[in-house]
Structures are given as C-alpha cells and as structure tokens.
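User: Batch of two.

Assistant: Item 1 of 2:
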Amino acid sequence: MQSNHLGRRQFLQHSALGVAGAAAAGTTRAADSAPQPGREEPASPDVSNKVDVLVVGGGTAGTVAAIQAARVGAKTLIVERNSQLGGTMTTGGVAFPGLFDAWGKQIIAGIGWELVRESVELDGGSFPDFSKVPQRHWHNQVRINKFLYAILAEEKCEQAGVHIAYYEFPHTVTETAEGWQVDCVGFGTRRRVLCRQIVDCTGGAEVVGLLNLPRLREENTQPGSMLFQLDTANNPGRGHGAPLQRHGRRHYVHGADSSNSRTVTEANLIGRRTVLEMVRKEKRRLMHLQPETSFRESYRIVGETMITVDDYRSGRLFEDAVCNAFYPVDLHTRTGVRPEPLPRGTLPTVPLRALIPKDSRNIMVAGRCVSSDRLANSALRVQAPCMGMGQAAGVTAALAVAKNTTPLEVPLNDIRETLRKHGAILPRDEG
C-alpha cells in the first residue's frame, strides 16, 4: 500500500477560534500556548479526533456516506472545505436532482431519497409521477429547496451522531498500523484525525491523489456552470417548465477545474465577471447568484473495476453491483450538450469494485470520481447515482471497521442486506 507524507507545512498560528471548534467525536485539545516571537511553533494539532470512518467532502455523495456509516454504528467525522453540506446541489445550485426513476419505477432510494423527499415535503412542493415514462429525462428531476436541503442534512448528521468540520481539508495522509492519520488544516485550526477507514467524496478524489494512487483526468474538462437569475426573485423548489427555466439562467464557465483552490478561484471569478457583464448589457436586475461555480468533471480513480460507456449503455449487471444508475450520456462541450438517451429498458449498475482504488486498502470513493471512462462518467456524475454510491460506501466502510477488515474483503451479501435494511434499492430489487 502506498502512502505519501507530504512533510510538515507552515500552519496557521494557533487561535481561540481554532480551539472553539474542537467539540467532536473523540476530541482532545492541545494545550493552549501563545506563540513566542521569533520562534517557529511546532506543527502540533489544535484538535485531535479518533474515529472509525472519516468522510472527506460533504457534497452529494459524502453527506449520504457519513449519515449511513453513523447509522450502522461507526463513529464518523465529515470534513468539508465549504460552509454547508450538499455540494453541487446546494453551493453549486443544481437543486433538481435526478434521476431516481427509470422506465416507470423508482430505482434509487435510501438516505439520499429520504433527504430529497423531506426537503420537498417541508417546502410544500410536489413530486414527479415515477410510474410514467417521461418524454424527456428532466421531466422527472425533483425540484428541491436547496436551503432546506442543506440544513436538513445537518440535522440528520446530528441525529446519526456524525460530527462535522467545515472550512477544513486534508493536507497530509499517512498510513498507520490501524488505518490512517489525516492532518487537516483550516483557518485557525490544525486537526489530526486517526481513523480506520476513509471515504473520499471530494469529487476529484483528492485524498486518493495525496496517496499517489492513480487517477484519470481529461486535458480539457467539461465546462462548469454559474447559475443566476435576473428580474424575478429566486424561488427554489417551485415553478414550471424545464429545470433551468424554473431556476433561472446558466452560464458556461469553460475550462472550469475543481482540482485546486487556484483553479476554483479562477472559475468563480470568470463566472461572476460574465454575469456582471450580462447585467450591464441587458440592463436587468440581478436577483440571485450562486456562491460557486458548479463543476462537472475532474479526476476519476483507477479502480479495481472500470465502468466503460459500453457497460453503461448496455445496462451491464455487475456481479458486485451495489446500486443502480440512470441518466443519459451527457457530455457538455463548448457548443452545448446533446443528451444521448439509453435504449428502452436499459438500467446501468455500479459495482463495489469501481468505488475502491486499485491495489489499495482501507479507502473508498463515492460520487463523480467513481472509476469510469469519460462518457460513462458524464452520466454517473449526477446526483441520484452519487447518493446511491455514497450509501454503499458508507455501509461498506462501517462494516469493514466492525469486521476488522478492508472494504474489498467485506462479504457482499452483508453489504447488500445492510443497504436494504436502510431503504436502498439494489439492482434487480427495483422490479
């Protein structure tokens, strides 16, 4: 197993703010001491956690993975670089998740659907009729209130016992005899996490990258989207027509890259600058602007299994399938997107081995960084399949802790039975 210790970096100086956020699972505080002028302080952590499962990234997949791991009984911590859970659906503003249904039946449920359903019900919204096959795929995307979704996700984490660390991200990951030591940094905070299992839900498999495990990335990625609305008030979860018509407008940010803080900054600056130009040109009021570009593509892992577009288009039933997926092949380019619908009756699946980096132990991924080729990934990256992957990874990581083993060695029947117990729909169960 490879590990990569990047060396100690110059940390932010100790502050009261860093100590204040230390009330988490298994937390201890380093002794308070003021830094001495002219002397470099040792890079000791302000906060230490010892947990079973560390989920890195609190987006679509990571939120579900953390809740699921905790509900199975694992002591769980989630680290998220932004200020809220939900990722693309909340911070990115793509608040119309899909697809939970295919060919007249629901094919993805579980914790992700629980969150979506409750956010719609609390907002007084409505659901598509999954018993009807729509003329266009987006007709069955569910409209949610992204603000409600984010705070409902926090509530469910609290109820399950998940502890949340916002504004932090790993900078060093080191293998230990029992699992991992993960050193994270945030403003005013240095956190050391000792954990048994890691679930990397960063979108671009950033933890996998820190370990120097292989990842794939295209030279030119799909454009991101900056969502905004002019003239009329933003009304999340309501309205009629196509999703973007109901939400407002979308501007492509070409070359958008979520791989690091520099490229994310650049994408956000370009997106906001373009919106400002539109406001001036069209002489209309800006009523809503998402705080961040929504990214479609970054790194993907090289897993124990690779899902190809042929696997996806044919609806291959993998022997170790742990969730369904359904969406058109949906590659965005500079000229737009032309979704490629799947043949009638086709229902793709996601294998467990596509969530496990090749030749690794005690680490999994979930979400758009799933092991897949580019065209398959253009469909697998959407919210409902990512939720299904997150739930499968959460179950597997928690069971690996309970059985004192690594994810690839957890009995598949145990994973599937636990997923069913927690409301997930497994391949071949949806009929």
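Item 2 of 2:
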Amino acid sequence: MSKVVTLPRFSVGVGDRFSHQAKAQLAACMKAAEAGVEVIPVWNKSNREHMIIGTEPGQTRAAADAAVKELGWKEPYFVDADHITLKTVERFLKPCDFFTLDVAEEIGKAAKPEDVEAFVARHPELIGEVRIPRIPEPFHTDVRFVKGVADKFLAAVQDAGMIYRMLAANKGEGNFVPEISMDETDAPQTPVELLIILAAIADEKIPIQTIAPKFTGRFNKGVDYVGDVAQFAKEFEEDLAAIAFAVKRYGLPENLKLSVHSGSDKFSIYKAIHEAVVKFDAGVHVKTAGTTWLEELIGLAEAGGSGLEIAKEVYREAFAHAEELCKPYATVIDIDYAKLPKPEDADGWTSVQYTSALRHDQSNAAYNPSFRQLLHVGFKVAAKMGERYLRALDANEEIVAKNVTTNLYERHIRPIFIGR
C-alpha cells in the first residue's frame, strides 16, 4: 500500500453551496498559516445540497483545485463526500478523498443477537470497572449495559464497515480519509459508550481519522450553541480522553480526532474547544458548512443596488416557502416565526438594516437569529435563480469574498484553533 492519506491535526470543513467561494475560504486558512497555525480546508457538500442546487461533486473538486492553484497553497486539502450512504456514494467516488459515513438510519436498529454476543465476548475489558486515563472516576459497567450499547450502535458501525469496504475497493485503502458521524441520535454518548463504539469500529477494521459524536445542547444551523457550556466542555474533554485511550487500546489511527458537526457559529463553545485541544495536545475537525452562503447574501446586501434587491428577493421567497424549506432541517433549527420581519417591511430596508439582521453579531441589537436561520435553509431560493444569482456573485466578488474570509477566519478559525 502506498503512503496513507492523513488528515492533519487541525482541519475545518468549509461548505461552498454555489462553488464560488473556495478562494475566499482558502484565504482564511492562509491567514491562519501566517499566524503560525496550520488549519487544513476540507470542502464539504452533501448529496442533498447537490440535488437541490443541481450540481455535481466534481464541481466542488474543480473549485477547490482552482483556488489552491491560484493562491499557491502547498499544504494538504480535501473534498468531503458529506454524509454519504451506499445509496448515494457512487457520484462522489472519483472527486472526493474524504468520506463522512452517514449511519444515522441504522442507529437504534437492533443488531443481530449473535453479533452482540460475539462483541461482548471479544471485549471483556469493557465489563466491570473501566478506567479511562485522564477521567478521574472509573466507569462501572455490566454485561447488560455493554449489550445495550452494542444493540444501539453495532448495526450502525457494521453499516459503516460496508460503506468503508466499498470505498476501499474503489479508491484503494489509505487513499482517503474516513469519518463516521454518530451525532444524529437521541442523547449524547458517555465516554464509556464512545469507547464501546470505537471498539466496534476497530473490530470492523475501519481506520477512521475523525468521529462526530453527539454532544449535549442544541447545534442549530447558523446560530450560537444553546446549552450548558460547562457541561459541553466536560463532555468534550472526556471524549478526547476516550479517543486517546481507544487509539492505544484498539490500534486505531494515531491521528483520530473529534469532529464537531454543525460547528459554524457556535461561538460560546469555541473557547472550551480551544482549551481542550491544547490541554490534551489533540486535534479537532470543525464543520462550518452553510455559514459561507449567508456571507454571500451579506456581501450582496452590503453592495447595494441589484445585489441588495437579490438579497431581499431571497428573503421574500424564503418567507413565502418557509414550511417547505424548513421541513428537512426541523431538528436543527428553532425559528420564532413571530420574530420574522414581514417581507414588505424587509423590502424597504437599507443595506445596513439587512446586514445587521443577518450578520452573526450578537452585540448588534438588530441581529435576528430567526431571520438568519430561515435564510440559512433558504439557499434553495438562490439555486432557483440560477445564473442570475451566480452573475451577482461574480459582479460583487470583492465585497462577498471579504465577508467570507473575515467570517471564517475571525469568527471561526481564530477562536477555535489559534485562541484570542
């Protein structure tokens, strides 16, 4: 086998809905490099987003490659087949070198009883007093508990194994970065549950380099974290401890790290993430996804003229089709419809009024989280505009790019990876 493709310590998932901001996003990573910290870009776009917008994964690859060439980026970079299953992976095989294995549909489905029994028999170390270094108190488990965890997650891990082996057969082992998403479940995994999941992943011989567990609190699209920050910090540190232990105990890749999904705009937990990765000398992958699309809208609104008119039209249409747009994202948005401005009022806004409502600046009294969340899921409206929207991005490239780069670097990369 040739050299294994390895994801470096720090990486940021950057969504680029319309394949126009790769250069501006890469510029943010270059600013991090100038500050002395390597943050690797991973361009991610899900099958659902490609279907809505009418694009192909190859376009994401082409935009990333072009940005890298134009800006002279010499470090690694990746294109993520975001949340793929066996049903959707085919179109991502050639252009992608990072695969987020989505096993959400299998979580909670009972595994075969004989598979659960075999798992428990293979792992007596998970029964009784389980000590994880750097977690002060031991965990006390019994056979029933381990069986229960295996029953909830084993089928999902086996499904991930099938996807991984299909990828390995097509791409070649070691030629891509595998991530497993375990965040779409009803409750956060405890450290010992995560350890059990990692043991099962090792049994499946999936060399994962990043795993996305579920954390406490709400990770709504495009707005700040809602929950107990101290509890999140505790869970995050304990998950880092569990991963470090699993790497040694089960022979998982040494660079295995946590992945934070829907990680954009979660400003209140960035300090906790930064302090934890420094404390544990660990890595982290944070997916920022749709925040870039909102910066495009902000840039268009800021430009005024036809750009502002397009931004207003996007809101007017999103408001009119709110139910349809929000339905696929119901579990990750909390919109107070009473706080949404009436489209006829928004139609009269200045550039400053529009950008003040949309830009994620919590010190601005005009900032409107409900307005922001509706527009976050409203990219379908811009997709229907087709070339008209893309031409507006081209015409206002400088001001849009400035917003994209500033948002990604100042509000995300710097507090997470560099620290203030």
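Residues 293-400 form one domain.
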